[in-house]
Amino acid sequence: MCYQMIQTPEQLDAVCACLRQNETTLMLDTEFVRTRTFYANLGLLQIFDGHQCFLVDPLLCDLNNSDFWSLLTHHHWVLHAFGEDLEILKHHVSQFGLSIFDTQIGAAFLGHGISMGYQALIQETAGVLLDKGESRTDWLARPLTARQLDYAAKDVTYLYQAYHTLIDTLKTRHLYDFVLAESARLAKLRCQENDPQTAYLDIKNAWRLTRQELAVLQKLAAWRLETAIAKDMPVNNVVREEALWLMAKNQPDHKNMLKETGIAPQAFRIHGVALLRLIKEAKELESANWPEKIKRLIDFPHYKQTLQQIREAITLVEVQTTIPADVLAPKRLIHELLNWHWQLTDEQRADEQNKPTLLSGWRYSILEAYLPKIG
């Protein structure tokens, strides 16, 4: 596999010179390590423009003191399963590329499933079975081996052929613009920062708690997320989720009672005093400041019937458009729609920012005439 290693200021200048030329479409990928950190650590950035493949070493190149990141945004981007890649890149660029295309999304529109892996994509489009043996190696260790570099280069060079094969079919079926729009929507979601005040909603079984207990959980979950970000460590390495829930439920007021929540010894030793203080503060909150009780959609009387009606409508649209139902309206987006109808106030529904995905963009242009009336 032909590639150029970028490890010196002179080599980086040469890449920047290429990026200053007319806008083009770049195949991008990242290799990273995230085991004991909140943020992924970038180990390698791969770029292929259809002619040249650059493997940019961020550990040896000072990318932040050059025009590299800014120049990268002057081009169109193609990635495969871009979620984690964009989480890394958003810390370095002010915006993503002129457009962004996720080949996993493109493959999903063509009926290959919503999570087609890169190896399967290349085998389908190029007839080549790639060796993925280096995917779990330490990309922060130096020097990188020839096998690692060859693996990294293939992640963007074969992507070029896959991309063009996909877009030819998508354009024939008049689906290309939909894939671009969906890629842009999901990329925008990746730009959103975690809100500590809503972190409690992600705790398993939070719906079982009373409003007062949720007030405790909200304060604890916000503290846990802020601590994880500040210390750059996984949230469960701060305090495990199950212990956090039990703290909200039992609301310990002394250390022996706190231990009964199953908190790990190290977390107890480091954070025990702070956790008891947070619980005490939350218990003192006025009821007007408690979060609303979490209502599960499954508990609404017409949930199953309405869900079935929507799925029947989506199946009809799938037949007419060839867009798979799990792309048109996955269960998550159906729930978003039902939440909008059943759990938001009239004032909240009037806010365009709260409009559900199924009632906006390319999906609404297709589904408007088919979605049932939701009471």
UniProtKB/TrEMBL annotation:
Keywords: Cytoplasm, Exonuclease, Hydrolase, Nuclease, tRNA processing. Transmembrane segments: none annotated. Residues 210-289 form the HRDC domain. Its cofactor is a divalent metal cation. Its EC number is 3.1.13.5. It comes from the Bacteria. It is found in: Cytoplasm. It catalyses: Exonucleolytic cleavage that removes extra residues from the 3'-terminus of tRNA to produce 5'-mononucleotides. GO terms for molecular function: ribonuclease D activity. Its main location: cytoplasm. InterPro entries: 3'-5'_exonuclease_dom, HRDC-like_sf, HRDC_dom, HRDC_dom_sf, RNase_D, RNase_D-like, RNAseD_HRDC_C, RNaseH-like_sf. PANTHER family: RIBONUCLEASE D. Belongs to the RNase D family. Exonuclease involved in the 3' processing of various precursor tRNAs. Initiates hydrolysis at the 3'-terminus of an RNA molecule and releases 5'-mononucleotides. This is Ribonuclease D. It comes from Celerinatantimonas yamalensis. The gene is rnd.
